[in-house]
Amino acid sequence: MAQSSNPPELLAPAGNLEKLKWAVQYGADAVYFGSEYSLRNFAGNFSLHQAEQGINYLHQHGKKAYITLNIYPFSDEYEKILALASSFDDMNADALIVADLGVFMILRRAGIKAALHISTQANTLSSQTAIEYAELGASRVNLARELSLEQIMAIQQAVSGRIQTEVFIHGAVCFSYSGRCAISDYLTGRRANRGECTHPCRWKYHLMEEERPGEYHPVFEDDRGLYFFNSKDLALFEYIPALAEIGVDSLKIEGRMKSVHYIGSVVSMYRRILDGEHISSEEAFKLLSRVKNRGYSRGFIDGPAEVQDYQLEDNHSAGNTVFAANVTEYSRPDDCWIRVRNKIFAGERLEVLLPSGRLSETTLPNPLTDQKGESHEFANNEQIIRLTSPLPEFSILRRVSE
């Protein structure tokens, strides 16, 4: 297949208005976020007023706004979802992301102007299903994570010109089928498919044989247990050129519950790759190690998941940096102000991630000076400190431990 004339869209997550702005500044072409009925009850989410602010901010910067309504609702919730969708439509949202066929049809019949995108929760594994969604009026389908590159290519060839395709390229992965998990509901009463997941796939488990109740079989020589279901994070940076070449329309990053540090670090790296820059695997892993992760995996892109795609030893999410501060306001040519995120010390040297994705370093002043002109040997969270070397707004300052 000939390469698409346009590069794929880079689609970033936002759990709140602040994260939306960071996604834009670090290179996203579009941002997806939600309010109610969006499968992320603990992401912060947007009020209607904040959603309107977010949509306006995106449009002012030439970006697109996609709203998640991808819950599987009960019968008495459809009217509420339609009312919410109509509000987003009046705000000129570019697309609504849905999974449930009932939701899709009521939005179609109501004459919603926004494009309708099919969520990954709908488990689309075939070109036949994608084409049927197109016949119903969908403009895009987010393909299931369980597909290989070869299978994505076959689907792309079959649906090209009929419906857009979207592929997840980075972020946390649920061990269950396309993220549809029943374990949280079973163990805790909090329903994953209602946006309430407690992530029991990250918990420690022991093995017990049916006819030997109470006898827990060791799976390692130590007694820590085994994290059977603890999937590593997805990272498909090596496959971006291939996905672009076969014509995938949008590349999606997971993480509405992640920090602005995560958004800036991950979005900027993929932006650089999409802009044609070659980043070696070694450099990519170095950049991605700066944010919390459970180790990285290629998922299903090469075929079925294997044991190395799971972090069996522990359930910790670790990175090698501390998010120290970010530039809040670019003032004069010779200085700027930073917002402290974690304790910083006068005179210490920190790594800087610029919105362009480039890395540099800076040395903090000694002493530190706050907005009142008072001097400090250190500063804590939320303090505003003057930086004597100018940096662009949204720049990240972080302490690295290799």
Automatic annotation (TrEMBL):
One of its GO terms (biological process) is proteolysis. Keywords: Hydrolase, Protease. Transmembrane segments: none annotated. The keyword Protease applies. It is an enzyme of class 3 (hydrolase). The keyword Protease applies. Residues 322-398 form the Peptidase family U32 C-terminal domain. InterPro entries: Peptidase_U32, Peptidase_U32_C, RNA/ubiquinone_mod_enzymes. Coiled coil: none annotated. Its EC number is 3.4.-.-. One of its GO terms (molecular function) is peptidase activity. Belongs to the peptidase U32 family. This is Putative protease YhbU. It comes from Sedimentisphaera salicampi.
